[in-house]
């Protein structure tokens, strides 16, 4: 999970008049940390519960094809990590962190509630040589079967390895359809699609106010120089993973037992609990996260709230534009590819590609030789950060679809979990591994052997590749249904969690230490922008593994398995190559960092 709260904040209010020793404590920390911990836990409960459901909700309820569904997912997560740049600024200048957190919690909870109203399931249909046929879905034992309805006949749809499709009657082929001549889609209500996109837009907007500012409030609990700060943020970080662990089990369970609305409804409840913990705090948070002491602030806040709500239709428009994007024509080259990008893609890539060299040119002109070298090291690591999160964030898209289609979800033959529930492995392994990793780095540091930040980044890249290659190896033991054992997927998440702990905890801290002081806020913005670009890229990578579906189900599981494995293998080789490159660059990067660790 891309969660990197940091103890290093570029601007912190001075509360040095408070003596922490005179206050009641919670595990040796300010007692307010318990409320912040619980608030973040419930907020992440809501977010990760919703995220676990999103891709399958798009493919199985609205019956979008893989390309559209993973594109929407990538766009949503990109906006989620872009909006905190604006939300953090507005809180600093106008609202204060506390009001921003409460407003963000309300908007996010309303977004989750709106997602509960998905309307009727889309009705699939197929087009064969230009003629439309209805598609019916029927249960056959523990699986669903798709049929083309041709008058009084119902013909089972079976995809072939070469991309052609057979129509079967009583198990025998009666018609063969050439590759490309069979197209499937669904009749879905434009109204409920609009409702769904509005819900996602509200979640994206509210997250921008909540995510950066709850961490800011945690930072305010400690005096400047208080050595408990890092440990406090570590405790806070565990709240994130505890919330996501339980939500990724419970929200998908309710979605299966009661319906999609129940899964999203539980996410909304979690978000409302988070709001209530801040709203009804018994005055325990008085003096923390307060707005600037300017008389016009009270009036300005209402304009900000109204402006934030006006952003929702803007995001809705971006989602619609994203859904309507088309693949570039064959042979159009890089210019054709860039031209085919939706507006969101053009904005993200354009901003990132301009900001990286632009800031480096400025730092070369305005900074000293040492400052330029430190900024160059920071920008290099930011670029590699994009690569890591692009691959890691396949969890909510291609890996969830892989779990649904090509994974045997049985747990020792006793019971089965659902595909969205497989995402809980990451949170579970983070909780288990984090203390071990902390002790490992501490022990190595005592002996002068702790890897440098570039080396940790390189290890993370190779690690994320190792997780995918483990799953590819496990696929060689796939059963006759072309399904891989659940524990191979769990092994991937174990390795990915280790890789995450090599890169996630040091990211923001590294940026604040390497940046020129007068642009540290801008550099933090570029760091979050890099994660946002990675989320969008992750959706694009997942689109490479798109397979033909009818009514949300693949037509050939062998083709599906091979498609995923080809993509996982390809990105693994790239990650290993880039990881080795970063390890080779670690010596000059460490030199340019001038002692920053």
Automatic annotation (TrEMBL):
A single BP term in Gene Ontology: oligopeptide transport
InterPro entries per record: Dipep/tripep_permease, MFS_trans_sf, POT_fam, PTR2_symporter_CS
Molecular function GO terms recorded: peptide transmembrane transporter activity
Subcellular location: Membrane
Keywords, comma-separated and alphabetical: Membrane, Peptide transport, Protein transport, Transmembrane, Transmembrane helix, Transport
Membrane topology recorded in Swiss-Prot or TrEMBL: Multi-pass membrane protein
A single cellular component GO annotation: membrane
Domain of life, source organism: Bacteria
TM spans (from-to): 45-64, 70-91, 103-122, 191-210, 231-255, 261-281, 302-322, 334-362, 374-392, 424-445, 457-475, 487-508, 520-544, 564-585
Listed CDD domains: MFS_DtpA_like
NCBIfam families: yjdL_sub1_fam (TIGR00924)
Family the entry assigns: Belongs to the major facilitator superfamily. Proton-dependent oligopeptide transporter (POT/PTR) (TC 2.A.17) family.
Protein name: MFS transporter
Organism (species): Sphingomonas psychrotolerans
């Amino acid at each position: 999970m891309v969660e990197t709260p940091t103890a290093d904040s570029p601007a912190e209010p001075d509360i040095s008049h408070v003596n922490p020793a005179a206050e009641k404590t919670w595990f040796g920390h300010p007692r307010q940390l318990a409320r912040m911990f619980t608030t973040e836990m419930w907020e992440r409960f809501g977010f990760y519960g919703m995220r676990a459901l999103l891709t399958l909700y798009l493919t199985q309820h609205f019956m979008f094809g893989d390309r559209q569904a993973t594109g929407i997912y990538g766009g949503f997560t990109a906006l989620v990590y872009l909006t905190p740049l604006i939300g953090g600024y507005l809180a600093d200048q106008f609202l204060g962190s506390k009001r921003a957190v409460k407003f963000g919690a309300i908007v996010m909870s309303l977004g989750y509630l709106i997602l509960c109203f998905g309307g009727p399931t889309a009705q699939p249909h197929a087009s064969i040589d230009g003629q439309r046929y209805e598609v019916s879905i029927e249960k056959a034992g523990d699986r669903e079967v798709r049929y083309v309805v041709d008058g009084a006949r119902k013909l089972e749809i079976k995809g072939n390895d070469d991309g052609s499709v057979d129509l079967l009657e009583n198990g025998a082929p009666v018609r063969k359809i050439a590759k490309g001549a069979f197209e499937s889609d669904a009749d879905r209500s434009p109204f409920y699609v609009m409702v769904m996109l509005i819900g996602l837009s509200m979640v994206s907007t509210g997250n921008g106010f909540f995510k950066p500012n709850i961490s800011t409030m945690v930072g305010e609990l400690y005096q400047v120089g208080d050595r408990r700060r890092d440990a406090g943020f570590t405790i806070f970080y565990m709240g994130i993973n505890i919330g996501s662990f339980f939500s990724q089990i419970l929200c998908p369970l309710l979605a299966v037992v009661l319906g999609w609305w129940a899964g999203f409804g539980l996410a909304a409840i979690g978000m409302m609990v988070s709001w209530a913990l801040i709203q009804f705090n018994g005055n325990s948070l008085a003096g923390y996260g307060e707005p600037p002491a300017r008389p016009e602030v009270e009036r300005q806040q209402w304009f900000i709230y109204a402006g934030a709500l006006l952003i929702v239709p803007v995001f809705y428009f971006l989602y619609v534009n994203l859904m309507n994007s088309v693949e570039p024509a064959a042979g159009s080259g890089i210019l054709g590819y860039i031209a085919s990008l939706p507006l969101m893609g053009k904005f993200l890539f354009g901003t990132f590609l301009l900001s990286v060299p632009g800031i480096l040119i400025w730092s070369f002109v305005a900074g000293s030789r040492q400052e330029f070298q430190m900024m160059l090291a920071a920008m290099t690591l930011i670029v590699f950060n994009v690569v890591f999160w692009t691959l890691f964030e396949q969890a909510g898209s291609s890996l969830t679809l892989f779990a649904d289609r090509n994974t045997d979800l049985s747990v020792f033959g006793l019971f089965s979990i659902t595909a969205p529930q497989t995402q809980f492995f990451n949170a579970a392994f983070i909780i288990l591994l984090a203390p071990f990793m902390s002790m490992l780095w501490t022990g190595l540091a005592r002996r002068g052997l702790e890897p440098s930040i570039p080396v940790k980044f390189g290890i993370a890249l190779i690690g994320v590749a190792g997780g995918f290659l483990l799953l590819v190896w496990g696929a060689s033991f796939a059963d006759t249904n072309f399904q891989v054992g659940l524990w191979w997927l769990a092994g991937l998440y174990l390795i990915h969690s280790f890789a995450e702990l090599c890169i996630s905890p040091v990211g923001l801290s590294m940026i604040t230490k390497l940046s020129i002081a007068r642009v540290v806020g801008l550099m933090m913005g570029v760091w979050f922008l890099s994660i946002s670009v990675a989320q969008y890229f992750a959706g694009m990578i997942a689109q490479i593994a798109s397979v033909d579906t009818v009514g949300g189900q693949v037509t050939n599981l062998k083709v599906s398995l091979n498609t995923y494995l080809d993509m996982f293998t390809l990105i693994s080789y790239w990650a290993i190559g880039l990881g080795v490159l970063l390890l080779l660059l670690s010596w000059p990067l460490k030199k340019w960092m001038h002692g920053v660790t």
